[in-house]
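Hi there, hope your week has been kind to you so far. For a while now I've been wondering how a particular protein folds. I'm sending you its amino acid sequence along with the backbone structure tokens. Could you read through the record and tell me how the tokens relate to the sequence? Take your time with it, there's no hurry, and the full record follows here.
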Amino acid sequence: MVALAERRPRRKAVTFLLVLATVAFCAAAALRLLGIDGTRHMVATTALTPYSAAAGVLLAAVALLLRRWALGTTALLLSLVLVAAVAPRAFPDPRPVGTGQDVRVLSANLHHGGADAAALVGAVRDHRVDVLALQELTPGAVAALDRAGLADVLPHRVFLPAPGAAGSGLAARHPLTTRALPARTTFPQAAALVSVPGADVEVVSVHTLAPTVPGGPVPWQRDLAGLPERDLDGPVRVLAGDFNATLDHVGLRRLLNRGYVDAADQVCEGLTPTWPSRGYWPPVVLDHVLVDNRCPVEEFRVLDLPGTDHRAVVTRFVVPDP
């Protein structure tokens, strides 16, 4: 009887902890499944959905082993739904087999212009990049890139340098023409029509304001909503850069529903993190190349770039013959 009396408080404590963990997990799952990006803390929680899915599976296993059937079943069902949403990113998607012009796009956030210019230009050469999309491009970074020989490999450019995080730019192997975005964004985002041989490709260097700033996620939501959708009557369009959003955020999912595919997701690299490249925060996927869904994606890689907290991303896709 004494032993039984001693076990009861322990069982209650274990049950209480499992209830707390299940409630927290259910709240995190609800944010993702209901598409709620209400506050900066909610947005940050949604960014961790792949981790939440794994934690939910573990929580369900523990609860079921301890015979907390209601808690375990609830956690299991929700975690399976999250896993079903996340797991496909680790597998290649069916995509059309197209013939046409190969185009290679590299995107890099320079972290207030501090990225290693020589390493970036080396990556451009190694991967035979046609278009380079830059975020947080400062005047100092432009000078460093010129010293490193960027103009020798990508002689055409539209640069909008600015101090801090506001600058952006595009550099290309082929001639380009500046384009204006249809909506105003927090940071200027360089956009241009690149005259790739045999095809024109419109590229936007995307950089949305981080949703975790003290002012909240409204400007970030507005920036994502203002990005142009795919235009069936126009040239192929590509959005490349630091979206400050993962594939679990409703704003990015809506953008994908407007005629784009995520290049990483197409070739089973959708769970490869891009930020932070160092530090304590669990790494997440914030940098993307969204490609017109008429274009088969052939390759996607994430590259380490010294001097910045983001990893660069490079993709190769095919612009189909007319």
Observations:
- Confidence is low (pLDDT under 50) at residues 1-5.
- The chain has two domains: 2-89, 100-320.
- The first strand starts at residue 100 and ends at 109.
- Residues 232 and 259 are 9 Å apart (CA to CA).
